[in-house]
Amino acid sequence: MDMAAAKKLNENPHKLYFKSLLYVERWFTSTRFEVIICDQEDNLVFKSNGPLHYYNMPSMEADIRALMRGLDEATLFGINHISIYCPPRHLIFEYLLGISYPKEKEIALLMDDVKRIRNRFRSSKIVMMFEEDVKFVSRLSIETCIICLENIRPELMFSGCEKGHRICLTCAKSHIKVKLLDGMIPNCPQLGCKSQLSIVRCGEFLTENLCLMWKQRIKEDSIPIARDFTVHTKAARI
Ligand SMILES: [Zn+2]
Ligand SMILES: [Zn+2]
Predict the structure, then answer these.
(1) pLDDT digits (tens, 9 = 90+) for 7-41
(2) Ligand nearest 175 Cα, by number?
(3) Which domain holds residue 169?
């Protein structure tokens, strides 16, 4: 980043949008965060989403953790002035303004953490989102799957690759199935990425049969000597 761009980032107020979502599939539940940072003219500066936890987290806790993620990202970007856009009619808006206080201890402690992170900024404003802000943000949060090229909601995207490459769940399932039936260990479909997919992460939405097949492939892959031996004995017999 050049000096002028860095100065612009530091001095201009930025908008932070955050939310959490619960993603439930047949074998698979996770709580995810979504964070979007825009400049004053609504140009996208940063966007991130991912799992907060692999279980169903209470929604207030999840939203606060999503906000903390967003504030952390904004600090990393060197942003000094932030406007925190709260989802409409959300209690977090009242907590942030100090109009009301959380009754549960865990939530109160999390809000203390938020306060500490907010102190890192030279200014942080609290704004309640209008319907048009909500629409604007949901347009920004759409992702494109590299396989089917469809525009997909982030909670329907999936990453089993250690580098974080993402494809939609439908494509993930068929990609893994094709690879396994071809006798291969499923790799990441991103061009140029050599990572193998994680059987633990993917196993959560695969059928038992495909999981067994995958484990079998890993087993076969780890005993190349035994395979060579079989080939040789066969050759010797001929
Ligand atoms: Zn896809
Ligand atoms: Zn990858």
Answers:
(1) 666 778 999 999 998 776 555 677 889 999 999 99
(2) 1
(3) 152-237
